[in-house]
Fold this sequence. Notes:
Layout: E1 2-8, E2 12-19, E3 24-31, E4 43-44, H1 46-63, E5 70-77, E6 83-85, E7 95-96, H2 104-111, H3 116-120, H4 129-139, H5 141-146, E8 149-151, H6 153-162, E9 166-168, H7 169-172, E10 178-179, E11 184-185, H8 187-192, E12 202-204, E13 209-212, H9 215-220, E14 228-230, E15 233-234, H10 235-242, E16 251-255, E17 259-265, E18 277-280, E19 287-293, H11 297-307, H12 311-316, E20 329-331, E21 349-351, H13 359-382, E22 391-394, H14 401-411, E23 415-418, H15 424-438, H16 442-445, E24 451-455, H17 462-482
Parallel strand pairs: 1-5, 5-14, 5-15, 9-12, 16-22, 22-23
Antiparallel strand pairs: 1-2, 2-3, 4-7, 6-8, 10-11, 13-14, 16-17, 17-19, 18-19, 20-21, 23-24
Helix pairs in contact: 2-4, 10-15, 11-13, 13-14
Amino acid sequence: MSYLGIDLGTSGLRALLVDDTGAPIGATEASYPVHHPHSGWSEQDPADWVEALEKAIGTLRAQYPAFAALRGIGVAGQMHGATLLDADDKVLRRCILWNDSRSHEEAARLDAVPGVRAHSGNVVFAGFTAPKLEWVRKHEPEIFGRTAKVLLPAGFLNLYLTGEHVADMSDSAGTSWLDTGARGWSDALLEAGHMRRDQMPRLVEGCEAAGMLRPDLARAWGLTHPVIVTGGAGDNAAAACGIGAMQEGQGFVSLGTSGVLLTARNGYAPAPETAVHTFCHAVPGRWYQMGVMLSATDSLNWLSSITQTRPSELSAALGDALQPPGPVRFLPYLSGERTPHNDAAIRASFTGIGADCTREGLTRAVMEGVAFALRENLEALRATGANPSELIAIGGGTRSHYWLKLIATTLGIPLVLPADGEFGAALGAARLATLAPTGEAMETVMQPPDRGQRIDPVTGLRDSFDDAFGRFRTAYRATRDIQ
């Protein structure tokens, strides 16, 4: 038997086929565009997700005979996106994505409603789903009036796969409509956001069956056996499943488009005043907390675009040995920031640039700025009682060993790379896909990866990076006051 994990990301879809032991058989990727019609806006066409999925399925069918033995599918998705459907399940507008900041005023209004934080366990961030619908209600009332269902990106693929409106707890916790402690839709939160229960999908745990693969899709994909589609997960919960972060203190740092520092929690203990996210995990009775910065590798990609130099070349030019903090500071707020500032309006800036500044100096500043923002996330997590002693490092940015040394030193925590590479959320989704069909125990399936290289903090540079972190915080306060 084989199982399929799908990671519906911001820049593309990744599909991973695994066997009944969880070992990867093969993977493929398909990309799609992000639309930015205005500054701070970020949208995608859900039809592009379906096209990418079908392209990935075609590749897996052609290259891996084990696809014919498929028994389970799990979908991990970029969180918070608002996919609006009419009564006939037709998409009403492009999906407003997680990194879209247009609804910051609506988010602030919802966040100020008494009881909202208590029910959701979180600050209402501008990127969350509920304020997006408030923005649509105000600026696109005709579309709001026709909205029969709101689905997150992973939920939209679940609809395509099963024909049912269904979502998992971990993804739904990022809407500001879910009672995260009770793991169910909150009437109080829905009322605050002018929404109704009938507009919400059915909720399941990420490891539970959400539905069966549609017969017409099964035939088109050459499958002759029933295929269960599980609830799946939000991308970060799925990544945690993929690296076995299920118990208190286990966690990871992710260097992707956004930067995430996540730790699993055995109980529900929200601390919204810290701007830390407290969400349901993808399995029953578990939660996780994370700090999120919106522009991690996105910051280096931005520098790459304006210098016309590939990110790998920018990183390689710094060499292998970690250098002390440079004189140039970079605030990595290209799209605003979440943890710990909850500031959708702040924007990025360089300070300390002199006539002798080089491209390498700018690269160091960008990497250091991301590392310092991750340290702010770590300190916010520690304020909730979380205290990881080491973190698994995942995401595209981990290809830069210079950046890993920098982050380990700035955080003061060793980083560990998976021995055989990592498939992130796609592997977590594939693991969830095995649970409902097989009935295996979560503890058996969600195992940590074999340990690869360990990156320890550079002891001799800790003090200098501590000092530079203090200057980074001062620069944030100054920039906030100016902007």
